[in-house]
Write a structure and sequence with these properties.
The complex is a heterodimer of chains A (153) and B (154). With 153 residues, chain A is α/β, with parallel strands linked by helices. Helices cover 47% and strands 15% of the residues of chain A. In chain A, strands 2-3-1-4 form a four-stranded mixed β-sheet, with helices on one face. The longest helix of chain A is centred in the C-terminal third of the chain and has 17 residues. Chain B has 154 residues and is of the alpha/beta class. In chain B, strand 2 and strand 3 form a beta hairpin. Chain B starts with a strand and ends with a helix. The chains are: A alpha/beta (153), B alpha/beta (154). Chains A and B meet through strand 3 and helix 3 of A and helix 3 of B.
Chain lengths: 153, 154
Amino acid sequence: MIIIYHCYGGAHSSVLAAAIHTGCLPVSKVPDINEIINLPYYDQTSSSEIGIPYYYGKDECNNKIYIQGMGSSDNIITNMLNSFLKIENIDKREVYLVNTLKNVNILVRLGGFLSRGIGLVMPGRPLTAYGLRLAYPKFVKMVNSVKAQISIA
Amino acid sequence: MYIIFHCKKLNLLAYYSVLLYINDKHKNKNKNNINQYFYRLKDMEKKYKNKKMGELIFIQKDKYDNYIYLLERGKKYNISIQALLGYNRIFFTKNRYVFFNLDDYQNIYFKIESISEKINLSFLKKNLFIKGIKKCEQEFINDLILLKNRMIHK
């Protein structure tokens, strides 16, 4: 199965969720800012790369985890994915899309805009990490519910 | 191969370009009679108007066995194309895509034409479409011929 965590730019919240899912980050404690900042792909993707799905790793059940930025076109991209699957005769249940933006707070949005939007990596990057630390329990809960749902499916 | 005609918002130009491409009518462009096409275009518009944005609309196969699709992808051209190519990569489907961007030929006539029904000016639709086509015809037909040649020599 393929699980795609998607957000606006594919640089922060989707990376965090994918990292939790693949076991790069712990579920039992909140990681420190450096652990978050040093994650692969964290705050790296540029706006020209929005739309490209990146492979992040595999989970314990061998599901492939991807991250993707969808900009503000998530509905369009989702429709496109569905029609792509239909054309290629791929079972819809093979893919699980998770929108991570719902867990994002104002600090992450502001930091993301500063760092990726206008190139102010400092203070944008630490601000996003700080915001994600605050929202970390929500992300853990979301990933656990994803895992529960795919094990049922 | 998949040939995808894509634009910000589907309008008569999108259907027209697909019909021209499939029917080889761009070869004798002087004899082209837009009037003759208009009612077919309106039928297509009616048929596809409920399609969701982002949905790949299959039209038919061309004579070189390529699949012809239409795509309404909103303003963000790069995001949709990169996503589609990305899905092709992650599902190992190995399709080859050719994208034909119709936004380059849009003009004010097409813009008014696409909203003409909403503002109760549907009687102007045909004239606006013909004027729009005439304005972009040269470049549009040339690019369509280039695309066709590419398909012949693929």
